Amino acid sequence: MIKQTTRETVKETIEETKEEYAIECKNLTKKFGNFTAVDSSNLKIKKGELFGFLGPNGAGKTTTIKMLTTLLSPTSGVAKVAGFDIKTQSASVRARIGVVPQEFALFQELSPMENLWYIGELFGMEKNELKKRSEDILKEVELFDKKDIAAEGFSGGMKQRLSVAAGLLHKPEILFMDEPTTGLDPQSRIALREITKSLNDSGITIIYTTHDMDEADKLCQRIAIMDQGKIIAEGTPMQLKEKYGGGKKLELEIARSNPALIEELKKITGAKSATHDNGIIELHFDAAKSGIIPKISKFLAEKKIDAREIRMVEPSLEDVFINITKKSEKMEVK
Question: Are 324 and 49 in contact (CB under 8 A)?
Fold first, then answer.
């Protein structure tokens, strides 16, 4: 009896801790003639994650999103979205996802309420439910006071918030946001990021594509970097920076320098490498070292060399991308 109870307890524990995924891809591939846009992607995105896709134009991000939202059929491989196969159960997938495109795709001549009513009727929502849901979601994206005004006079940020409202109208489990802050002013970008974070906190899984490295770093819990159709790195922002960021960097702005001085600085700090450009010396380390800045300050004082600034610089996602692709000229950093 004891053994049976133990087995049942273990089984229940396994079932409770088993990962549940919003999206699962296995060898997902899309070809256009001889061109491979997405090359055997393997990916698992957990339910409730805010997951980011980074990469240059032409990397395969948009093609991947189009397959996952059933707009494109894969050439080979399989993918499940919300537990449904994107090829054989596309209607079930579409019923459980929302999409916020980069470009405004609603009717500009209609008001927010009219746009939402049109979309709600396509989903077959009851009138009472549709009215309440439309009003609630417009309040959530801070457009309720503009609910009866034609969208053609809206700013870019307001149009994107309306797009978010449209994508959320039918209460999707998963929301795809394709570069939603592109072209927005700083205030609108911040507002949309706050809305995105709030939606994710409410339990919605969000798939977020962007070129903005700082945005991805602050917003996304995990990130996949794509290049030439392949996912070449995946992890949390911190994991990616620790693994691919190139280590810590210390920058010195000094009045004068020479090769001998740079070599001395490298030696006393234990830096793995040193570079000099436009009056700034960079010392590179595999990991942070304690006491380096006081040591450098003392050394420069003894040499009677003025230091304008000494600063430790953390690796960024931009460093990560450059280091793993070696194609920094392709990246559009905002």
Answer: no
Q: Which fold has domain 16-242?
A: Rossmann fold (3.40.50)
Strand pairing of 50-54 and 205-209?
parallel
Residue 82: which residues within 8 A CB-CB, separation 6 or more? 22, 92, 93, 96, 97, 173, 174
Q: What is the pTM of this model?
A: 0.79
Cβ neighbours for 194, distance < 8 A, ≥ 6 positions apart: none
Q: Could you tell me the residue ranges of all domains in the chain? A: 16-242, 245-327
pLDDT of residue 1: 39
Between CA 69 and CA 324 the distance in angstroms is 28
**C-alpha neighbours within 13 Å on the C-beta side of residue 313:** 18
**Over 66-131, what HEC string results?**
HHHCCCCCCCEEEEEECCEECCCCHHHHHHCEEEECCCCCCCCCCCHHHHHHHHHHHCCCCHHHHH
Q: What share of the chain is helix, strand, coil (3-state, %, to 5)?
A: 40, 25, 30
State the Cα torsion 79-84-87-93 to the nearest 10°: -110
Backbone angles phi, psi at 208, to 5 degrees: -125, 115
Q: What is the CATH number of domain 245-327?
A: 3.30.70.980
Distance CA 156, CA 86 (A): 32
Q: Which residue has the higher pLDDT, 10 or 243?
A: 243
Please give the sequence-ordered ranges of beta strands (E in DSSP) within the chain, or none if there are none. Answer: 21-32, 35-46, 50-54, 76-81, 84-85, 97-100, 174-178, 205-209, 222-227, 230-235, 248-254, 273-277, 280-285, 307-313
DSSP letter assigned to residue 255: S
Residue 287 confidence (pLDDT)? 67
Structure tokens at 35: 């061109």
Closest Cα partner for 219 from 104, 9, 53? 53
Asked whether 98 and 167 are in contact (CB, 8 A), the reply is: yes
Lowest mean pLDDT, pick from 105-109, 114-118, 313-317, 330-334: 330-334
What is the bridge-based pairing of β-strands 222-227 and 230-235? antiparallel
